[in-house]
Amino acid sequence: MRRTTRPAITMTDKHRKTMATTAETYHVPVLLKESVDGLDIRPGGTYVDVTFGGGGHSREILARLGPEGRLFGFDQDADAEANIVDDARFTFVRSNFRYLKNWMAYYGVESIDGLLADLGVSSHHFDDAARGFSFRFDAPLDMRMNKRDGMTAADVLNRYDEARLADVFYMYGELKNSRRLASAVAKARAAGPIGTTQDLMDATAALFKRERGKKDMAKMFQALRIEVNNEMGALKQMLAAATQLLRPGGRLSVITYHSLEDRIVKNFIRTGNAGGAAAQDFYGRTVSPLAAVNNKVVTPCESELEGNPRSRSAKLRIAEKRDDGE
Predict the structure, then answer these.
(1) Model pLDDT for residues 90-134, shown as the tens digit of each residue
(2) Burial profile 55-91: b = 16 or more Cβ within 10 angstroms, e = fewer
(3) In 10 A of CB 155, how many CB atoms?
């Protein structure tokens, strides 16, 4: 990435006024203590929060850093800028975390001591009707995390052929009736473009069984969101970059919310790659640059589940860079 002079991000009085309320409601940080504990913070270390969001995890990391510590917070959504932390040790990066390696090179950072990722969609996105992330509201089918770039969910629904659309529903929503859903969408769009959440619900509602209808609808919306934002591809790129950037003994702390992304994280920790193909040494032992810190995933306790029901599917995995890791 070519180095250019970039103006510092400053906070207006209005920005500061809204930050106090927005940061608290934007996203309740999940497994806050457990995930930051997992980083084993060194006061003078360099850390990255690749899912800044409301800034909850970043604030906790900063509270444990000393004067010489550094924290970089990534978020591609412009709305997250309202939550920027006013701290000289903090640098906000308006970018998808897939470009982690490029941005660390831009800032002259050769290695990091830890990286935290909370892969869940912020409550802000689900609750902002205009973004189209939830079937609770009738809104344009956008679903882009970065509203400046890429196809919308409506584009996917109207442009993909039926077979490709079925693949999206099956791979990213794990929906067994993916072909029927794709057929229903194709039939509906023949009469007119599908542009809103209500259009999509009208086209597919008959295919969802009453007893688990809402869960399967959520999976359909999840599948579209993952496709629109290329979430699996971005996750693989970020994990590969993080593995390279971590110094020996550095920590990776990742919170996942569904089996697709959890499988990728688990594979990276176990084998050093997303596919899970394990390299072996002369003695047949698996060779990986990372070592799991917690062999059993960490999940929210009862009190957290009661206070934040959206945390119910969260799983935390923590890994450490081996001394001989590459």
Answers:
(1) 999 999 999 999 999 999 999 999 999 999 775 444 445 555 456
(2) bbbbbbbbebbeeebbbbbbbbbebbebbbbeeebbb
(3) 16
